[in-house]
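Pilot study result, target chain (143 residues):
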Amino acid sequence: MQVFIGGACSGKRSVVKKRFPSAVWWRLSPGQRLRECVGIMLPGTPLVVHGVLGWLTATIESDVGSDDWRAQWCDDLNELQQSAQANHVTLVMIVKEVGRGIVPMERQQRRLRDLNGWFCQDAAERAEHVWYVRHGLVQVLNK
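Predicted structure:
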């Protein structure tokens, strides 16, 4: 798996499109399980998963605890990664960095930023490469 992280309008999508021109793109929808991406994998074709921050919005008003959400997406990430390896698919995650701005006053917005940060950490932990994109410039991040 490869993770591309950066702020809004930093150039992440353009960089990924250039590096993976034949990729299939999948936008996550709120309430959807991450593992549903397995169903659209095409053998030997890169799969780009994006829309993570919007996807996480479904969790901020939920009664389900953050630890339970995190355990669920970790299981899904593991399943995605195994399926990608079995099908020779390069899995690419595009995630938005939101931890460098002003901390919101609203509890739900703070929770969203926490969930996004944990998701980014969990994806990066599983990734072969993590790329930080800013102003269209790409920098490799080492683990």
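One observation from the pilot: The longest helix spans residues 66-86. A full batch analysis is planned for the follow-on phase.
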